[in-house]
Automatic annotation (TrEMBL):
<comment type="similarity">
    <text>Belongs to the class-I pyridoxal-phosphate-dependent aminotransferase family.</text>
</comment>
<dbReference type="InterPro" id="IPR050881">
    <property type="entry name" value="LL-DAP_aminotransferase"/>
</dbReference>
<keyword id="KW-0032">Aminotransferase</keyword>
<dbReference type="GO" id="GO:0030170">
    <property type="term" value="F:pyridoxal phosphate binding"/>
</dbReference>
<dbReference type="InterPro" id="IPR004839">
    <property type="entry name" value="Aminotransferase_I/II_large"/>
</dbReference>
<protein>
    <recommendedName>
        <fullName>Aminotransferase</fullName>
        <ecNumber>2.6.1.-</ecNumber>
    </recommendedName>
</protein>
<dbReference type="InterPro" id="IPR015422">
    <property type="entry name" value="PyrdxlP-dep_Trfase_small"/>
</dbReference>
<dbReference type="InterPro" id="IPR004838">
    <property type="entry name" value="NHTrfase_class1_PyrdxlP-BS"/>
</dbReference>
<dbReference type="GO" id="GO:0008483">
    <property type="term" value="F:transaminase activity"/>
</dbReference>
<keyword id="KW-0808">Transferase</keyword>
<dbReference type="Pfam" id="PF00155">
    <property type="entry name" value="Aminotran_1_2"/>
</dbReference>
<feature type="domain" description="Aminotransferase class I/classII large">
    <location>
        <begin position="32"/>
        <end position="383"/>
    </location>
</feature>
<dbReference type="InterPro" id="IPR015421">
    <property type="entry name" value="PyrdxlP-dep_Trfase_major"/>
</dbReference>
<dbReference type="InterPro" id="IPR015424">
    <property type="entry name" value="PyrdxlP-dep_Trfase"/>
</dbReference>
């Protein structure tokens, strides 16, 4: 009875949680921690969305069980979103399912379509559910790079030639969490052709579809003709409409995969609270100014952060999309490793970031910085970082 459970043994300690616990303890002590670690939006949803939630919640018949796959109006709203945003036609009945955030959708689909011993191709570094959702389901993971260059395609070809059993599923996530890398439609065209040739399902995580900068909208893999033969895509209202805690997401695309996800979900949950689903309809169908407003705000925060941290002596590449920056450790401090660096930044500079090693071994040497504080707080974080770097003898700090 003392032996650890099989699936728990396959889950390593969640190093990001270690930094989060330190942040919480510091705040309990009354310290003013600038939290750039968790991707938790600091903005509210649009007023009309909150109004719809309250309106429906007041109805006496709104508090029973909902529909596991999502109410029909919400599935239609998501199909309409794909039509106007990507020009993709979806059948709300067979090609759309509502999930409790994209994270739950990915984990549930993993349990639906994965057999013990299956091999899954997943990016490294990547958001943890991209790997551990399948590890929990009993699969083995073969890592591929996140960088969409020829090294990526070489890694895919080697995986198909040398992995036993042959991989059956490939996870892609662009804009990437944590690296913020992006791809164009030509990348997806090549990927769909590769998947058909190799008989591999593609699961695309498009959670940051609307947070793109410099005038380059992010594409959907489903824009590729024939993509629905091999792919499903996950999206979320969390960042687009600042509704992270509402847990509203979607899976759309291949009918067979959507049916599998829907069937397993029917055994697990009765769907989200109906008033939340009604409010999600209001978000997708109503005024869309919030989408542009949020994008502009994160864009400005990105520019402020890059400039301020650069002046502090920490050069960070400007992300093209998402709400994150993937920041290499200052060269003088690389020896510390991302976890120890994150801990010191928290305790000595009162700035919380996420250690890159928490996203996979290839994340070592980086930290993820979330742009979830206002511009004033970002500048304060830069000042704190400057003092910390000076204390460590980093000589590149600007005057």
């Amino acid at each position: 009875m003392e032996e650890e459970f099989y699936r728990i043994k396959r889950l390593p300690p969640y190093v990001i949680a270690e930094v989060n616990a330190m942040r919480h303890a510091a705040r309990v002590e009354g310290r003013d921690i600038i939290d750039l670690g968790m991707g938790n939006p600091d903005l509210p949803p649009p007023p009309h969305v909150i109004d719809k939630l309250c309106e429906v919640a007041r109805k006496p018949d709104a508090h029973g069980y909902s529909q596991s796959k999502g109410i029909p109006g919400l599935r239609r709203a998501q199909a309409n979103y794909y039509e106007r945003r990507f020009g993709v036609d979806l059948d709300p009945e067979t090609e759309v399912v509502v999930t409790l955030g994209s994270k739950e959708g990915l984990a549930t689909l993993a349990s639906a379509i994965t057999a013990p011993g299956d091999t899954i191709l997943a990016p490294n570094p990547s958001y943890p559910i991209h790997t551990f959702g399948f590890i929990i389901a009993g699969a083995s993971i073969r890592s591929v790079p996140t960088t969409p260059d020829e090294q990526y395609w070489d890694a895919l070809e080697k995986a198909m030639r040398f992995t036993v059993p042959r991989p059956t599923i490939l996870i892609v996530n662009y804009p990437s969490n944590p690296t913020a890398e992006t791809v164009d439609l030509a990348f997806y065209e090549r990927l769909v052709a590769w998947a058909k040739e190799n008989k591999v399902w593609i699961l695309s995580d498009l959670a940051y579809s609307e947070l793109y900068y410099d005038g380059n909208p992010t594409p959907s893999i489903l824009q590729v003709p024939g993509a629905k033969d091999v792919a499903v895509e996950f999206t979320s209202l969390s960042k687009t409409y600042s509704m992270a805690g509402w847990r509203m997401g979607f899976a759309v695309g291949n009918k067979k995969l959507i049916a599998a996800l829907t069937r397993v979900k029917s055994y697990i949950d009765y769907g989200a609270f109906t008033p939340i689903q009604a409010a999600a309809c209001a978000a997708l169908n109503g005024p869309q100014e919030i989408v542009d407003t949020n994008r502009e705000l994160y864009h400005k925060r990105r520019d402020v952060m890059i400039e301020a941290f650069g002046r502090a002596g920490w050069e960070i590449p400007a992300p093209k999309a998402s709400m994150f920056a993937w920041a290499p450790l200052p060269p003088e401090l690389v020896h510390m490793g991302s976890l120890e660096f994150s801990k010191e930044l928290l305790t000595q500079a009162e700035v919380a970031v996420a250690p890159g090693v928490g996203y996979g071994e290839d994340g070592e040497g980086f930290v993820r910085i979330a742009m979830v504080e206002n511009e004033q707080r970002l500048r304060q974080a830069a000042r704190n970082v400057k003092r910390y770097l000076q204390s460590k003898g980093v000589n590149r700090v600007a005057a």
